[in-house]
Amino acid sequence: MRCIVPVNQPEAILSIYRDTPSEELLRFHNLGAPLPTTTGHARLLISMCMDHRKDLLLPNEFAYVLRSAGGNLRDSEFEVSYAIAVGGVATVALLAHTDCGMAESPGSGPSSSRDWPNAAAEMWTLQQRTLIAMQRAIRLVTLSGLCAKRQCG
Ligand SMILES: [Zn+2]
Question: Where are the domains of the chain?
Answer without folding.
Answer: 10-97+115-150
